[in-house]
Design brief:
The complex is a heterodimer of chains A (359) and B (506).
Chain A: H1 8-11, H2 18-39, E1 47-49, E2 52-54, H3 56-79, H4 87-103, H5 108-132, H6 137-156, E3 161-162, H7 166-173, E4 175-176, E5 179-180, H8 181-198, H9 202-211, H10 213-218, H11 223-249, E6 251-252, H12 261-271, H13 283-303, H14 307-325, H15 328-341, H16 349-358
Helix pairs in contact in A: 2-13, 3-8, 3-9, 3-11, 3-12, 3-13, 4-5, 4-6, 4-11, 5-6, 5-11, 7-11, 9-11, 12-13, 13-14
Chain B: E1 8-17, E2 20-30, E3 35-39, H1 46-53, E4 61-66, E5 69-70, H2 76-82, E6 84-88, H3 99-103, E7 110-111, E8 114-115, H4 117-128, H5 146-159, E9 164-168, H6 176-191, E10 195-199, H7 203-209, E11 212-217, E12 220-226, H8 232-240, E13 263-270, E14 274-281, E15 286-291, H9 297-304, E16 312-317, E17 320-321, H10 327-332, E18 335-338, H11 342-346, H12 353-365, H13 373-386, H14 403-415, E19 421-425, H15 433-448, E20 452-456, H16 460-466, E21 469-474, E22 477-483, H17 489-498
Parallel strand pairs in B: 3-10, 3-11, 6-9, 9-10, 15-20, 15-21, 18-19, 19-20
Antiparallel strand pairs in B: 1-2, 1-4, 4-5, 7-8, 11-12, 13-14, 13-16, 16-17, 21-22
Helix pairs in contact in B: 5-6, 8-17, 12-13, 12-14
Chain lengths: 359, 506
Amino acid sequence: MTGRPMTAGFTAGGLPSAWRQSLPQIIALAAVLLADWLIFPDFFQVRLQDGRLFGSIVDVFNRGAPVAILSIGMTLVIATRGIDLSVGAVMAIAGAVAATLINGGHGMAIAVLAALAVGIACGLWNGLLVAVLDIQPIVATLILMVAGRGIAQLITEGQIVTFVDPSLIAVANGSFLGIPMPVVITLAMLAITVLLFRTTALGLFIEAIGINRLSSTYAGVNTRIVLAIAYAWCGLTASVAGIIAAANIKGADANNAGLWLELDAILAVVIGGTSLFGGRFRLLLSFIGAIIIQAMNTGILLSGFKPEFNLIVKAAVIIVILIMQSDAPALLHGRYRRWRDSPAPGRETPERQAGGGAA
Amino acid sequence: MTSTEPLLAIRGLCKNFPGVKALDQVDFTLQAGEVHALLGENGAGKSTLIKVLTGIHGRNTGSISLDGVEITARDVAEAQRLGIGTVYQEVNLLPNLSVAENLYLGRQPKRFGFVDTRTMRRRAEALLRPYGLEIDCDALLGDYSVAVQQLIAIARAIDLSARVLILDEPTASLDRHEVDMLFATLRRLRAQGVGIIFVTHFLDQVYAIADRITVLRNGKRVGERAVADLPRLDLVQMMLGKELSAVEGSRKHRLALDAEPRISYRGYGRKRLVQPFDLDIRPGEVIGIAGLLGSGRTETAKLLFGIERADCGRVSAGNADLRLTGPRDAIARGFGFCPEDRKTEGIVGELSVRENIILALQARRGWLKPLSGREMREIADRFVARLDIRTSDIEKPIQFLSGGNQQKALLARWLAMDPQILILDEPTRGIDVGAHAEIIRLIEDLCQHGMSLVVISSELDEIVSYSDRIIVLVDRQHVGMLQGEEISTAAIIRHIAADGKAQAAQ
């Protein structure tokens, strides 16, 4: 069942079954969590301490927050048939802005709002390059990926800017109703994004542009504005993740904040079943994808394997998940059945014979 | 006809694609030292014939012989080795390599195992001199104009021992002077005994250069004639498959000239696309656009809808000038546009029939005012019923529908907006007979309710039957406007054939 292509829900004639489409991701998450539990029997144990939940499973969500938040914005961009390589660098810029402002004596609100605004501005820059100047997204966002670290370093003047402001630190270390703040922020971002893109027509426009930009333009969709919004929102999510990352280490590290996280975010989106060729997107499944990645990281850490294994195991698991989602199992099965059932020549054989006979 | 053995002889060639007979018992002969024009409308089988000849497609039955020897090329490279060279409209060389490298790609002169650049350049210069090209062979191919690139491609093909040279629409993007340059080369090669197959849509050029003409239609050979024995009028009739005596449609063509135009174009055009034209679109009329393939029909539609921006002229409604800088402007004025290429410009394949139908309406409402699920389903259901769109479910991705049903869903997309002016580019191409008739009925029904329609079609009978006025296009120019009693297939054919030179007299 899991090997069916994603369109199975449609071709069966019924309504698209959200559940059936989510099955590969849910099974993968369950399998990774099960493996974690087998390796570390206390994995699901949760305890309340100082009004905050602790435990390995809580840790998965807490540590997975930055990638999960990035994957939300990345989903939108990938759905437009784009990609945003700059989110890691934008994280560094946002962290640098927040840390510098808070140390400059500005309040928490100013520091956070300024960081978010800078994130949106970065996203709009990417959007401008992609939507108006028609630069390929991978090249357009590569520019900010490279330049962004430089900008962050200029802001921090090459230092790691540490801060002690308790309200900013609470963004990573605080909790709400016992739930760690990063998890709360992630769920809030997810909810806001679903609300903004799914209860308006933006989600439909994004999918339409990702599938066929020309047709969408001819149907009157304002493709440039929609693209700019998708990239701007992606920049916003990057700045949120950047503030959390900075708060977590109580400092802004322009060189290492968010390093390579764009790749994890892209991976989370792909595991979540959104095609890199654009089109249909599922925000919740990208979130699950991010959690799968973090659950693997945590599991390998807990298992006591050398960290080197981490990357290799991760790669293997990802390949399995992607094969599960793809048409490959169905195709292989079909080919096997054809091979088994009929050794008779295919449709083109007579043509080949005619062509060959004439030679 | 000469009695000599033909250079290239094709006998009884058949090629089937699933569900289509692309070539049906086609014969074709090419003599050494002649330019043979291969003509036909879209879907006639010209490109299939060339692809079979050059080994891109296999064939089902039939034989191809070169100099009396049967050949079967398995790919383009083998065809080239056998002596059949092909030059396409989009030059299939490498723009990022130098001219010399392109000419000697895969057979570079070597010295001590290294490419001998100096010899290569010297040979390249010598090779190009007879073509009148005194150019820097070290410069990148991409730095030269398409015309020069084409000559270089021809030089390469001939140098690779081509005795048969196939030119597939070589002149489509050339200006007059460049065409002359190309023709001078073709005449020289013809004198050397090369057999040239020339595919084009420009009838003037056929009469300027070709010795013989073979016309294909619907995968069959209509006939082969010497150019001298074939007046233009007869040629156009062969291509379009119409007899001048054909009985015309029974519909009364209305003269709606008294009504105020909804929208007026004056001196509207764009360089290299469509020559400036005037056009008034009035309520309740059907304007047909007729012309051969490549005459600027689709380009006209795209100008009207704002997809292509005009570089001259103006457009106005009532007394006010309009800005028409993109589809959104046109849609805001009540336009709708069903493009010829449904797949790449019309449908959004993976979206459902429902989403495809409401897309334009939703785009006009803006993203902040989404249609509710109920409203969307209601609209989709209404049009599925009204236009009889055959789909098991409105949630089915539109790409799984047949061509006719996709076309109806696109019509529904615009009808849901209640447009004033609907532009239909080849609305009946590639769809089954049933849907065909329904769409024609719909066109007539819509204009009865006051909608203005602009319809492009290669089906002359069709366009004659429903149009109130017909614009005839030749070579990207509006050459005629037929209205009322003047409308007939014969008149259209006469206008198309009349273009150009003295042939008009015939």
